[in-house]
Design a protein that fits this description.
heterotrimer, A mainly alpha (284), B alpha/beta (282), C mainly alpha (294), A: two-stranded antiparallel ribbon, globular, B: 282 residues, alpha/beta, 10-stranded mixed beta sheet, 22% strand
């Protein structure tokens, strides 16, 4: 009887913790809205997509080029980092000798911990001049994609690695018994079995790419425009906030909180996509 | 097995204890002596490093004083000083007419200078040429006597007082400036120009001079034939100059007054020079 | 095995051998590429930063806006910020994960809502956490620019990472364990302590590691919450400059701060290596000792 009661208390505490964790998002939304709502009501949401340009000091608030900037940088880096990350994890689990795999894992974990500022710093001093020599000016969409790819690679690699570990060893023994080669086992057995985990990894890395601020700010050039090529500079929504927040007052500040809201919208969209994929998997 | 049961509550209690202790120290630091306590300064990222150094020296000379310096932008310095979030705001320009409710105290002078990569053969540009460069009427260095290479225009992000000063001097509308790269802080502009032989940017003279004198790869362009240097800002011949101000909401008293006087005194002239600004101490 | 059938159709047997060789080569080169990039970055940092690091660098305060002097106060501030972050996030995160995996039916409304909100939280950009932390912890709760505000903001940020990893760890524990424990008459709470948590430790440690990595590396969320005062903090309510904010300031705002920026970055990475090693060691030790208890 006593044990049962302590379990109820325990679950109650857990429930409280979970509730708190769940409420954080609502708090964030509340504060973003609180800072921007009155401004939104006076000028309307459409202005953020119909204005001629982004000149908040002159009351022009077009966010569209920066939205494109964020989307392009994110898409590019996810496309580049996902195969590299998954193959990295495959390397760790199935190709490398144990000692090398362990060392490689440590390296990836290290990569995950390097601050974005350091990546940005390195990108600014090393990568950007290289790209500039290839095709001026240098700070560009491409620089952003490359730096971001390196940054989000550990996320997908570590998650993929963990989900490969969770693949039941019987599957592998079965594949071995069938005489399948390494890659055939990986592509035919492991990848499908770890699909859910890999999906999580992709969603996580996409989130990180959209949200990355400092490195992108340092290497992308920050010109408010829809880029015409890989070598054109772009400004992302996040870089916009970081660049102007400290200097913004009044409506300008509110406009930046609206960019925050748009970012939240992107994230919610991403989660919705993930949910749809997840549902389909259940009924697959 | 005991470990994890103990661990979580332990972490909790440590954080609570730390928080509690911090509250305790907080209350004791509020002393009745007017020249003790805490000052908060926020504002311009150009002024912040200078004031932080001044504050450190001030602290060593007055015990029981703590001065917190937060870097943001001039407009944040204005807002925070107005709202009372900060005791003193730092502003890297003169006050605008609508900001005259505040009181400004000049602590140093600074200029804004155009910078080129050291390897760029161009050594002089007229004001008209600079305007054409920044509005993309001239897009290749050979049009102004340089190599055949496209010009990379580095501009500052909107809201920066360096941009306002620059645009004001060249009578440019900030909307008319067409940039290839937009940067935030001074050093980012210097790094961008250092990494790109065809770039042109503008920064606080202090930062540029420091970099040029310490083996960096940028050079400062003269304006109207007057060399960009702190010396020329000091003798008031360099045309793009600005005041670095401390602003307060009301007439400063007590600790605030003492600190502002200290920051304007000769006791900090060496610090001002060390940061490549121009001292205004009498 | 439908996938295998497809595989057989797409790659007939005679191609398989070369496909295997090709993929082996590809995977090894990917690994070499990643290692190469990392070594490039690291060697650059070591080359420029190693000379600066010394005992004095670690134990003295910054001078001349960080161009000279050391980083002692910044190390202390960083440790405090990360400490506050983990002390808040670990209990919250582990508790939530346990509830979601062990005590909440797969399709309960509560569980689903919390899960969904965490998915969103995981994607919230750090700069938005900065906006939020500034508006909520610094302004509304009146913490101002302080280590506490910064740490709590970071806690919100790393929470989803921690929860997700702990969940993965718990889910990886075979259901047989739970059934055997139930058969032995262990309560679910007891099962959790002696069996599930130890078994989930590797997942949790990856979570802490990722969370710690993100917390230590974070700049955007801290600029507007814990601020940039580079002196020794006297309490959790003082503003403190985190190592990454210091690097950002030196790299972007201080001419001639580059050498110390490199050194600080190198130091940050070194400390991270140490933490990595400790945590993975801990995870193994933890699991081994638990299983002996049973």
């Amino acid at each position: 009887m006593f044990q049962w009661r302590s379990e109820v208390v325990f679950v109650g505490v857990l429930r409280g913790l979970a509730l708190l964790s769940g409420l954080i998002v609502l708090l964030i939304l509340f504060f973003l809205l609180q800072e921007s709502l009155s401004f939104l009501q006076t000028i309307g949401f459409l202005r953020f997509f119909k204005d001629p340009a982004w000149h908040p000091v002159s009351r022009e608030y077009n966010l569209l080029p920066m939205l494109w900037g964020s989307l392009l940088v994110t898409a590019g880096s996810v496309l580049l980092a996902t195969p590299l990350g998954i193959l990295s994890a495959v390397f760790c689990q199935y190709y490398a000798p144990a000692a090398i795999a362990q060392g490689y894992r440590r390296l990836i974990e290290l990569l995950a911990g390097i601050p974005s500022v350091v990546y940005g710093f390195w990108g600014l001093v090393v990568l950007v001049p290289l790209i500039g020599r290839l095709h001026p000016p240098g700070p560009s969409l491409l620089a952003g994609i490359l730096i971001l790819s390196i940054m989000i690679l550990p996320t997908i690699a570590l998650v993929a690695d963990a989900s490969f570990t969770a693949v039941p060893p019987e599957y592998l023994r079965g594949a071995a018994a069938l005489g399948l080669g390494r890659w055939a086992t990986v592509s035919g057995v492991v990848l499908p079995a770890a699909k859910a985990g890999l999906m999580t990894g992709v969603i996580l890395e996409t989130g990180r790419a959209i949200g990355e601020t400092m490195a992108v700010l340092m290497v992308c050039g920050n010109v408010v425009q829809v880029p015409e090529s890989l070598f054109a500079p772009v400004r992302t929504l996040t870089a916009n906030i970081a660049l102007e927040m400290a200097y913004a007052v009044g409506n300008h500040r509110a406009a930046l909180f609206v960019s925050g809201l748009v970012l939240m919208g992107l994230v919610v969209g991403l989660v919705a996509i993930a949910e749809v994929i997840h549902q389909e998997q259940i009924y697959d | 097995m005991q470990n994890s049961k103990v661990l979580l509550p332990f972490l909790f209690s440590v954080s609570v204890a730390l928080a509690g202790q911090s509250c305790a120290t907080r209350t004791t630091s509020m002393s009745s002596n007017p020249l003790q306590g805490k000052l908060v300064l926020t504002g311009s990222s150009t002024v912040a490093p200078l004031v932080a150094e001044i504050a450190k020296r001030y602290e060593t000379q007055r015990s029981g004083v703590r001065i917190d310096v937060q870097s943001g932008g001039s407009s944040r310095g204005i807002t925070d000083a107005r709202q009372g979030v900060a005791d003193i705001g730092m502003v890297s320009r003169s006050l605008k007419p609508e900001e005259k409710d505040l009181q400004a105290f000049e602590i140093a002078k600074d200029g804004v200078s155009l910078i080129l990569n050291k390897n760029n053969p161009v050594s002089q540009l007229s004001d008209a040429q600079i305007v054409s460069l920044y509005t993309k009427k001239i897009t290749n260095w050979k049009e102004v006597g340089g190599q055949d290479a496209p010009i990379t225009v580095v501009n500052k992000a909107e809201g920066r007082s360096t941009l306002e000063l620059f645009a004001q001097y060249f009578k440019l509308d900030t909307k008319a400036i067409k940039a290839d790269v937009v940067i935030g802080e001074n050093e980012q502009a210097i790094k961008t120009v250092a990494g790109n032989p065809n770039a042109i940017g503008y920064v606080s003279i202090g930062s540029a001079e420091f970099d040029a004198k310490n083996g960096g790869s940028v050079k400062l362009l003269p304006i109207n034939g007057i060399a960009a240097s702190t010396a020329n800002v000091s003798n008031q011949t360099f045309p793009i100059a600005r005041r670095l101000n401390l602003v307060t909401k009301t007439t400063p008293t007590g600790l605030t007054k003492d600190f502002i006087e200290f920051a304007r005194s000769k006791a900090v002239t060496d610090i001002v020079k060390e940061q490549y600004f121009v001292s205004v101490a009498q | 095995m439908t996938k295998l059938a497809v595989l057989n159709k797409v790659f007939p047997m005679r191609w398989r051998g070369s496909m295997e060789t090709f993929m082996t080569l590809l995977i090894w080169s990917v690994a070499c590429f990643v290692v190469g990039v990392l070594l490039w970055l690291l060697s650059d940092l070591i080359w420029h930063g190693m000379g600066q690091i010394s005992w004095t660098f670690l134990t003295t305060a910054p001078q001349k806006a960080g161009r000279a002097g050391g980083i002692a106060p910044i190390l202390v501030s960083t440790a405090l910020i990360v400490g506050v972050c983990l002390a808040t996030a670990i209990p919250l995160g582990v508790g939530t994960a346990i509830l979601l995996v062990e005590f909440s039916p797969q399709h309960s409304l509560f569980g689903r809502l919390v899960r969904l909100s965490l998915e969103v939280l995981a994607g919230v950009p750090s700069i938005v956490f900065g906006l939020f932390g500034n508006a909520f912890f610094s302004k509304t709760l009146g913490l101002g620019f302080s280590i506490l505000a910064g740490g709590l903001t970071l806690a919100c940020m790393v929470l989803p990472i921690l929860i997700r990893a702990t969940q993965e760890g718990l889910r990886a524990v075979p259901n047989d364990y739970r059934r055997s424990a139930a058969a032995l008459g262990l309560s679910r709470t007891a099962t959790l302590w002696v069996l599930l948590l130890p078994a989930a430790m590797p997942g949790l440690s990856v979570g802490i590691l990722l969370g710690l990595g993100r917390a230590i590396a974070e700049t955007a969320a801290l600029i507007f919450t814990s601020g940039s005062v580079d002196r020794m903090p006297e309490s959790l309510l003082d503003s403190g400059r985190a190592l990454s904010v210091h690097i950002f300031d030196l790299a972007m705002n201080i001419s001639g701060g580059e050498a110390n920026a490199y050194a600080s970055a190198l130091l940050l990475i070194l400390s991270l290596m140490v933490i990595n090693a400790i945590i993975s060691g801990l995870a193994h030790w933890f699991r081994d000792s638990r299983i002996q208890v049973i």
